[in-house]
Amino acid sequence: MGYTLALPIAAAGTQLGYSSFASTNCIWLLMLGAGALPNIIYCVALARKHHSGELFFVRGLWPPWVLSVAMGVLWGGSIFLYGAATPMLGDLGPSIGWPLSLATGLITSNLMGFLLREWKAAPRRAVHLMALGLSILLAAIVLCAFSSKAGEP
Fold first, then answer.
1. Please, what is the average pLDDT of the chain?
2. List of long-range contacts for 65-73, beta carbons under 8 Å, 24+ apart
3. What percent of the chain has pLDDT over 70?
4. What is d(CA 52, CA 54) in angstroms, rounded to the nearest whole number?
């Protein structure tokens, strides 16, 4: 909803000569920056209150730090790709782009969990339900792709 309501910011960026990708990044800068500040402040306040800040610097934390940074880069990249792809989806871009983005993330994360054998100990029924859910999401993505081209000559 925030992205859709902030589309005039992207339109202003485009009028100033920025690409649609750069213009949508102006939206993310404002939205994500505004959300990050209170979160950072609250986390720092809790770390000070509970005297737990030094736990961030415990020996042997480099692998989790590297994985955390990689996760942030991948998540940020997905947000930027969503912003770049939304204008390409036409008028319905903001409406169908976000659900498609979430569905793609769910499919990717569950398939990675399957490939990394995270589902190995799961009951067979759970694996079948996961496969059914992923199949429905894939069908929805294909349906959206075809429906977006339905009215074109």
1. 85
2. none
3. 96
4. 5
Return the structure tokens found at 101: 């983005």
How long is the chain? Answer: 153
User: Which tokens in the block code for residue 30?
Assistant: 């404002």
Give the C-alpha separation, 129 to 100, whole Å.
Answer: 20
Number of Cβ atoms within 10 Å of the Cβ of 125: 8
Residue 105: predicted pLDDT: 85
Token code pair at residue 116 = 């990394």
Written as six digits, the tokens of 132 are: 């059914």
Residue whose pair of structure tokens reads 């859910």 in the numeric block: 133
State percent of the chain over pLDDT 90. Answer: 25
Closest CA to 97 of 112, 81, 108: 81
* Res 148: pLDDT: 64
Query: Which residues make Cβ contacts (< 8 Å) with residue 96, sequence separation at least 6?
Result: 89, 144, 148
